[in-house]
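Hello everyone,

My group is preparing for a crystallization screen and wants a predicted model to guide construct design. The compound we'll soak is zinc ion. Before spending weeks at the bench, it would help to have a computed complex in hand. I've included the protein sequence and the ligand's SMILES below. Output in structure-token form would be ideal because that's what our pipeline reads.
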Amino acid sequence: VAGRIRDEDIAAVREAVRIDEVIGQYVTLKPGGAGSLKGLCPFHDEKSPSFNVRPAMGHFHCFGCGEGGDVISFVRKIDGLTFVEAVERLADRAGIRLTYAEGGPTVARDVGQRARLLAANSAAAEYYRQQLHTSAAARDGRQFLADRGFDRDAADTFGIGFAPRDGESLIRHLCGRGISDEDALTAGLTATGQRGPYDRFRGRLLWPIRDVSGDVVGFGARRLFDDDRIEAKYLNTPETPLYRKSTVLYGIDLARKEIARTSQAVVVEGYTDVMACHLSGVGTAVATCGTAFGEDHGKLLRRLLLDDAQMRGEVIFAFDGDEAGQKAALRTFKADDQFVAQTYVAVEPTGLDPCELRQKSGDEAVRELVARRVPLYRFVLASVVGRYDLDRADGRIDALRAAAPLVASVRDQAKIGEYVREVARMIGLDVEVVRAEVEKITGASRRGRPASRQAPGRDRQLQVERELLKLAIQRPALLGPEFDVIPMEAFTDPAYRAIVAGVAAAGGVGVAAGGERWVESVTAAAGDDAVRALISALTVEDLHVPAGGEPDGRYASALVARTQELHVSREITEVKAKLERMNPVTQVEEYNRLFGILIGLEQRRQQLRSRGENGFA
Ligand SMILES: [Zn+2]
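Reply:
Good plan to model first. Here are the tokens for the complex, ready for your pipeline.
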């Protein structure tokens, strides 16, 4: 039976951890309006930030995909944890000791799969690390590192380890740590042979691969011995619930902060290159693990770089100058336009990789390699054009025909002109000749595109109601009891009415102190998921105070008045319509009664209008 964490402890955890710090590990956040932070959503793919965090409310919300909640829901969602696991993880972080409602901290709890696999990886990483330093058989591993200029400190910084050759001692070690055979297998640490499970990485030098938060999700393993049963030089953890090679970047845990700070990421090819870069002072280096750099890697980096229209991060690929490197560059070029605009290539003319370069020429040479980067488009165009004999007229035409489709594939119109000039210069042709060739291609594709549709104008009425509800959720103290007496009919959208009902059920704005607890109780009173999602959005949405001022009591009062005024206006329209349909001669009594109501409503509207004027000039 799972122990239940006491509510007080959960509240203490919520209070102790800062939501912006926790989320900041995964997403680089920057100021986005009063009291809120913005970044690129980790839960859906986007190119301009619609992911909002409001630290004072302890709440996040994405206006793109609708994900939202408190810090616990963020951790649950991003790492696929259960509620209890998420609380435990945050409590660890904050140094809070949790007590469990049933049976105290020793109670046997259901530990979720992710936590179990992480524990298995962490135990294995520690074991391997010790083996590297203590086992005689690890001599070749230590020598491998020394040969590449890595001392013991460097090995420890990166947690490098050695897997004993017998293939069984790891299993015994894990067993002693209470890790089941099944979890070791699922984590990819072991494989099953004819005589049962064995250490998948036996006899290899190991790099633990961590995710952004520093958890070991897998390993990269290099062959050391000629009699290794597996030929491959490098062996990686297979796909597991923790390890997906399409999203894993080696070194991201160490590089994350520096990538956010400098808006630059360097992608290199191997584990030793990442080490060499970091040790040389290029602290933004990462590498893919046993796969080419793909779309998901790009998304991960972009979130950390906070790439958007205002901020342009740089991704620098330290490709090999060889054909494989050129192919990789070309693939990247075709993959994503916006990404390409900020993509650079660092090529070492001697063909040395960063690890070799550091050994031969020192730390500074590695930093220089990165500093000498060239835009990816120039690198790609140069390598395409470079295949032709440009001294011959037909060679120049062939080069143009090869380069033009690449230029035409760029969606960013502003860039095309730049690339056209670049190609003209490279081939030695007139700019207009190149432009004409490119336009032959772009003209054909542009004709097929539909005109962009204009976004529908927002309904003024709903906008006012929404502003008022935001205030009721974010700043209830400003509104006070005058909110609670607004008739339900003043809200025109059923979802808004549900929130008003939730506010009432939570005790009303008049008594609310605000903050996380208030949001929580309104959310708890909400009827369904759609309403809860809306509350989540309203919790982080910016307040649109006229002229960008701070919301105050006068503004709050004006919003209430405006909402009521719009409601009274609708009533007036209804009464007028009824009067129209009446015969003042035959229905004189009813007509006079309604007419009296109309006069009353008109007066009320006039009062509300003057009260509301301050807020809506
Ligand atoms: Zn989203």
